[in-house]
Amino acid sequence: MTSTFDGRAVRADTSVRSPHARRAALASFVGSTLEYYDFFIYASFSALAFNTLFFPDLGSFWGTIVSMATIGIGYVVRPLAALVFGHFGDTLGRKRMLVVTLVMMGVATSLIGCLPTYGAIGVAAPILLVLLRAVQGASAAGESAGAASLALEHAPAHRRALAASWVNTGAAAGMLLASLVVLVFSGLPEDAFLSWGWRIPFLLSIFVALAGLVIRRMLPESEVFEEAVSTDEPKEMPAKVIFRDHWPSVLRVVGCGLFAVVSTIFSAFALSWGTHEAGVSRTVMVGATVLTAALALVAQPAAGILADRIGRKPIFITGNLVCAVAISGFFWAVSQRSTALILITACIVMVAGYSLVNAVGPALYAEMFETRIRYSGMAISGQLALVATGFAPTIAAALVRPGPNGWIPVAVFTACCCLVSAVTTLTVRETYRTSTTDLGK
């Protein structure tokens, strides 16, 4: 099979399909749901409660900034964890590492729900919070890359983008689930919310983890991966191969990945700024997240289908451009405290824009690397890209200014990240007509 299909070759390749393709997509979806449920639960409570519970002596302004910075801690450990998970994922198998990441995430998140607060044990409370956040970050470093690799490698060539899109559709499901839970518990009286209400959402993550664990243990490795590791070629450390031979792809993924700042700006910073500074009700801000996450469950698979038909790059670039333009409208709507405008502009940013990029990203990144180093390549480059994402709420909290137009520097920062992502994508090779076995070569 040649690396570029003609029409007849595409149809021939569609018959090459793993019997476990749907289960692989489901396993990726469930694992990603847990990962992002935990992520958005943490981001939401960083915005709503952690400054009071874990950093009360810093005051409202600095307490919020430091609370937001703990989100970034989870991203700092990711590149190192990506090296570890990527290495063993490419040598021992994707499935084993994905079981480990699922257990790590479920345990760490549940333990956050058990933490004593600053008022109970003093400075040890924020230290333990940061340590558990680091474990969450390490788990996430291996989760998305492994899940995308597994789903893509089990899928037929003409459905790779759709299969890989279920990883980030799981992210939308996790956001939706987390937002609904936050909506319920943040509606409690303030004393109940700060004493026990914030803990329950963290403890609930153990149930999603158990469901994902059952599905993943039943899933075999892909035939593509088994063939790649069974060859008699000399084996080199995947990380060595990546930085020696594939460093341009690493740089491209880092540039493309800047679009993800939209997610943490929307889910963490905007929630905090909108409720504390702009005076919008907590219900409206969380409700916007619920609405956009629900619509993304439809929009992202649709974007994956479209990317399999016309290519990854047009969809990815279009979504970035929509986000770059629409983010200002969203912040303006929040500053106006108009519920209708907030919901409409939130949908434009997160559904018409972010969903397109988020759906196509896993396939776009995974297809830059060949099978024998795909897990490592995606994990390392993807996590380097996400360092900026983790600290985006902190940067935004420092950039925002008092007054009705104080959001403008934050919108400019977000738009610049999306534009860099779009421009970088222009340098990526289009792969939607490339055979799975020829990817990354």
Class per helix and strand makeup: mainly alpha
Summed up, the helix count is 21
Radius of gyration: 21 Å
| Oligomeric grouping of the chains | single chain
**In total, how many beta strands?**
0
Order of helix and strand elements from N to C terminus: HHHHHHHHHHHHHHHHHHHHH
Spatial shape: globular
- Share of β-strand residues: under 5%
Level of helix content? over 70%
Give a written overview of the molecule:
With 441 residues, the chain is an all-alpha fold. It is built from 21 helices and no strands. It has helices at 7-13, 21-48, 50-53, 59-76, 78-91, 94-112, 118-121, 124-154, 160-186, 190-197, 199-203, 205-217, 223-229, 238-245, 247-256, 261-276, 282-310, 312-336, 339-366, 374-399, 408-425. α17 runs antiparallel to α18 (312-336). The longest helix is centred in the N-terminal third of the chain and has 31 residues, at 124-154.
Tell me the layout of helices and strands:
Blueprint: H1 7-13, H2 21-48, H3 50-53, H4 59-76, H5 78-91, H6 94-112, H7 118-121, H8 124-154, H9 160-186, H10 190-197, H11 199-203, H12 205-217, H13 223-229, H14 238-245, H15 247-256, H16 261-276, H17 282-310, H18 312-336, H19 339-366, H20 374-399, H21 408-425
Main location: membrane
Keywords: Cell membrane, Membrane, Transmembrane, Transmembrane helix, Transport
Protein name: MFS transporter
Features:
mainly alpha
Give the structure's gist in a few sentences.
This is MFS transporter. By secondary structure, the protein is mainly α.
